[in-house]
Write a structure and sequence with these properties.
Length: 148
C-alpha cells in the first residue's frame, strides 16, 4: 500500500513528536510521568508494559518499556465530536517510558490530535484546530514539568 505522502519528509512538529530524557530508574520515571500527566489534567485510564508481555509470551528479551494511556475527558469528548467519533481509533494519548540504558529513560509522545488532522479525520476543522492548540499546551506543560 502506498502512502500518499513521504513520511520522512514530515517535520516531527506536524505530528506532535515530543521527547524528554530522564536520569532515573525506570519505575521512578513512570511515576514521574504519571504525576506530571495528572498535574496537567490528564487521567491515566490505561497502563501496561509491552516489554513484560513480550518477554513473557515470546521470550523477546526487551528492555523496560511502559505505556501510560493519558486522557483528558473534556478533550476526548470534543475530539470525538470533531471527527464523527473516528478519533477513538487512536485513543488514548500514549506517553511512552522506555529505558535507553540503566539510569536513563526516554519519555516519548506523539499527538493523536495532529495525527488525526494528517489523516483527514476532522469534520470540524475549526474545532480540531482549537483541540490541537489546547492539547498541545497540556502536553507542553507535562514535558516542561518533566524537564524541571
Amino acid at each position: 500500500m502506498a502512502i500518499p505522502f513521504d513520511p520522512h519528509e514530515l517535520d516531527p512538529e506536524e505530528y506532535g513528536e515530543t521527547r524528554a530524557t530522564l536520569s532515573t530508574d525506570h519505575e521512578s520515571a513512570i511515576e514521574r510521568v504519571r504525576e506530571a500527566c495528572l498535574d496537567e489534567g490528564f487521567g491515566i485510564p490505561v497502563e501496561f508494559s509491552p516489554s513484560e508481555l513480550l518477554n513473557e509470551k515470546v521470550d523477546a528479551d526487551r528492555d523496560p518499556y511502559y505505556v501510560l494511556g493519558a486522557c483528558n475527558p473534556r478533550m476526548a469528548n470534543r475530539a470525538l465530536d470533531a471527527t464523527d467519533g473516528r478519533i477513538g481509533g487512536l485513543f488514548p494519548c500514549n506517553m511512552i517510558v522506555r529505558e535507553v540504558e540503566p539510569g536513563t529513560q526516554e519519555v516519548y509522545h506523539v499527538s493523536i490530535m495532529k495525527i488525526a488532522r494528517l489523516l483527514g479525520l476532522p469534520v470540524d476543522d475549526e474545532e480540531m484546530d482549537a483541540i490541537i492548540d489546547d492539547t498541545g499546551e497540556m502536553v507542553d506543560a507535562v514535558f516542561a514539568e518533566l524537564e524541571e
